Amino acid sequence: MSILVENLRGRIALMAMHCAGMIDLVALSVWVGTLITAYGFDAQRAGGLPTLFLGGAVVSSVVLAPRFQKLPGRWVATFGFALAAVAFLVAATTSAYGTLAALHVVAGLAAGAALSVTHGTIARSANPHRLFALVGIALGFFAVVFLGATPQLIAAKGGAALFYTFGGVMLIGALAALVAFPALPSSAPLAAQKASGAAPLPRAVWFGIAGIACMTLIQAMIFSFLEGVGLYRGFERGAINGVLIALGLVNLLPAALAAMLEKRIPARAVLLTGPALQVLLASLIMMSAAFAPYAAAASVFAAVMIFTHTFAFGLLARLDTSGRALAATPAMLMIGSALGPFLGGTLIELSGYAALALTAACLGVVAMLCFAQLPGGSPAAVSLTQAANE
């Protein structure tokens, strides 16, 4: 019997798969920090490995998204997450940079394929904004557990524990896909196929995609070195770990708030405010010599991205009724995330941590200019935008 998206089992499966596929949003700081402290890589090489993972995910998403309706979602997700799990478990057995690089590429390609069919299914549900907020809430709970336990596990067992943890998370995603990958109501694929046609995506959608990519680049660039800049400023590791736990707790809130405020705040207003707040927090994280401003900004940094992207997801679903843009959500998110760790590491090597704050400010301006091209998000505004692009 098919498990529908709106059924509890289907939603739980989507939550598990979203957490596995979006592990970078939670783990980048610990990921890069572990590669520096436990494996001895410099900032550029350490940032390069998550970049390879995320780059692989982008390639998979770009290739598969246009073919989403023809793909067997359950099997793509199951084998994708399973292959990613194998790659990470093998990574736990080596410290050779070349081997780790190849395994990160394999894991990214596999996880990206699985996440594409996951997000494509969410995008074609009855209420994409609400369902995306729901899986975002699950990611918040996952962040609390991951950030609360993983740094201590790595300290006790060594750097390999990071990759064993990643492998376990991917296995859970694979099992969820195998047992309960949801199907859409029979009418949904037909409607999506009719809507897709050969029409180009609305112009506003491309601006939305570019704006989100800029925000994810800021997110990845800053979050990757959140732990590193804290240690550089002389903050105690225990205090930094406490900040990571607080960050996980705070991440429980933004998706739930986004669901509650869906009809009360214009999406465009959220999208214009998000990058500005993100830049302010990035500056505090990277330039504060005192622990309190650093801790306060770091604790809410990821929440800004989660809240803003939930509104972006819902607005783009209304602007692009074919679902093609949202089936490529992993590419939309990870094209920025893929560049972030490597770009951040390179900037640190060249000019220090302050260069990250300046770069974030420039990217934030670009994101706001892109979002300024979007309509207000009301049905009437969306209809006018669609008519203008026909």
Architecture per CATH nomenclature, i.e. the level-2 architecture: Up-down Bundle
**How many domains, as an integer?**
1
The helical percent reads over 70%
Regions with pLDDT < 50 over 5+ consecutive residues? 187-198, 377-390
Shape: globular
Compute the number of helices.
Answer: 18
Strand content: under 5%
- Biggest sheet overview: none
What is the string of SSEs from the N terminus onward? HHHHHHHHHHHHHHHHHH
CATH topology: Growth Hormone, Chain: A
- Report the top-level CATH class: Mainly Alpha
The tally of strands reads: 0
Detailed description of the structure:
Helix content is 80%, strand content 0%. By secondary structure, the chain is mainly alpha-helical. It has one domain: Growth Hormone, Chain: A. The N and C termini lie far apart (40 Å). Residues 187-198 and 377-390 have low confidence and may be disordered.
